[in-house]
Design goal:
9 strands; alpha+beta
Amino acid sequence: MTILIRTENENDHAQVHQVNFTAFGNRDDEAELVGRIRTSPNFVPELSIVAEENGVIIGHVLLSKAEVTQGEQRHDVLALAPIAVSPNYQKQGVGKQLIFEGLQRGKELGYSIVLLIGHPSYYPRFGFKPARPYGLELKQFEVPDDVFMVCELQEGALKSIKGELKYPGAFFG
């Protein structure tokens, strides 16, 4: 299996929609989230990444801008959501390649941390840790401590970034 990891382009939108739809049990929620983020000011084109095999999109990850606020302090951060792999390609390392590429690109673009809500047994392999022990909070969604996670892209960033993660409006339909 030869997989090409590359930046999404407009011609990929229909296939990306289909990947997100099938990966999440034939539900539109995540596919529609991708569409809303693409048209928002929080969209970073270089961080919408696809996995392609023989001209067919088999996976997609999206990292977009969010904000951590504490009083008057504001920090631009990234939120990883969603990550989707076509069911026939799951558990073959496609998601892993997409996430590592997204984290590397986020670091190269100068972002310091990435936050997500995700499975506590999957994301630690990429450097994600529970976020609340680092002084980060999430109030927009009620989630257990072990699923609200952070990954430091710039060494030492978690010493200075504290406060509440604010997901942008695109995450709320």
